[in-house]
Amino acid sequence: MSVSLRKARTIIRKTLEKGREMELKPLSVVVLDAGGHVQAFEREDGASPGRFGIAQGKAYGSIMLGLPGSAQKARADEQAYFMIAMNGVYDGKVVPVPGGILMRDRKGVIIGAVGVTGDTSDNDVIAGLAGIAAAGLTGDA
Amino acid sequence: MSVSLRKARTIIRKTLEKGREMELKPLSVVVLDAGGHVQAFEREDGASPGRFGIAQGKAYGSIMLGLPGSAQKARADEQAYFMIAMNGVYDGKVVPVPGGILMRDRKGVIIGAVGVTGDTSDNDVIAGLAGIAAAGLTGDA
Amino acid sequence: MSVSLRKARTIIRKTLEKGREMELKPLSVVVLDAGGHVQAFEREDGASPGRFGIAQGKAYGSIMLGLPGSAQKARADEQAYFMIAMNGVYDGKVVPVPGGILMRDRKGVIIGAVGVTGDTSDNDVIAGLAGIAAAGLTGDA
Amino acid sequence: MSVSLRKARTIIRKTLEKGREMELKPLSVVVLDAGGHVQAFEREDGASPGRFGIAQGKAYGSIMLGLPGSAQKARADEQAYFMIAMNGVYDGKVVPVPGGILMRDRKGVIIGAVGVTGDTSDNDVIAGLAGIAAAGLTGDA
């Protein structure tokens, strides 16, 4: 099972709406499937050009390691070189900070991940969780 | 000048609608800005997981070289090693076949590119041009 | 849905057994999940050391493109530079010859891929299909 | 001399059995030959998809540097940038934590390495050493 394009669109739209409501800086949001492959992405006007890579890195690392961004950050805080090594293992596509959010089905199986970037990592998470909830799914940030 | 997210959304939706109308295989569509950076992307359900890379490669090569996919294909047909070298120069992100479409403003300045993949290259182009036209822009395929 | 480790083991063992029965050169066999990630791999004694990469490339390209090795070979035969570009897009992990075999569930959804290398591409396919059949699955070579 | 596929299978099976006996999280285990090339690999059901890269990185760094994971970790703890540089030198395939285990013959010559990942690094080592011992070899963790 993976997230449908329809749900991915809802997640992205509602994440961006939440960002506008909170008056955050321009956000970029990616939705990856359970294998870490890009399903949908949007970058708001005014965001810096390289935001796709950050959004992807937050979500891709979450999928590859089975750990959301906050757990990756905790590991990086205590053993930075390990998360740096993970970035090497996964070809530069691991960004170990909050904003990488896992999505699970009712049995707890990971069905995809969302990556949000643009404001503070904590605000990125709030917006992303709102988007995931709007699609009827539960996020693990 | 670059394409707004609003226009990018229109381009993607209308490209996908055209694909459904033509009964094409599931499509994937990326919109890049004038610097070749990802603005928006959607992959239809049923498409193979790696379609982001192909869509990006069609559009990114078009931006980097200032040549749409059909011109790249013509060059590849007569001098394959040159386009293969371009693929190396741009880190594997050049896919020299139709489906990479440049977008220009009224003065002819390139403001972005669209990459479409999923059906035959020629059908990918028809769908992409329909999407670009629906956003009030002119595509150079 | 993806292939379980138990099925992956059966596929590999039966592929290798078929290879011994046919008196093929030492084989190497990888099983990837639906996202293209390695589930299991074995390299027979006497095989050259780099066989993991070839087995992976045959199977990974099949997953990413949704096309088995023989279809990739047909494309490469008529438009070599396209498949070379695919190798660039997917970081050198596309080997477009027979021996990359897709596995589908009853609804036709791709649930993984097998990559076999060591003998002629055609013999690699025969052995791989025998392994997949032994696991109760259908291979699309 | 290198580890035979038969021994590699025993190592992997017994490592996984030890993990089940200890009730560890799902494990992934790779066996590399004396040149650092993949001989065999298995990922248990429920493990995150990217575990091959971590298992490989633990074992590959051990082979390339002639140092098991715990010695690499000691070096990383006192001079993180050095082990980060090693990750770059070896194309992202060095993961400097316990779980990379060298195997030696009776004369002390390195004949391969095992990489285990999935639980805590210390538990990964316990399981891996059990697997190596079951194959009649001595592990240097």
From TrEMBL, chains A, B, C, D:
Source domain of life is Bacteria
PANTHER family, alphabetized:
SLR1406 PROTEIN
Name by which UniProt lists this protein: Heme-binding protein
What organism is listed for this UniProt entry? Roseobacter ponti
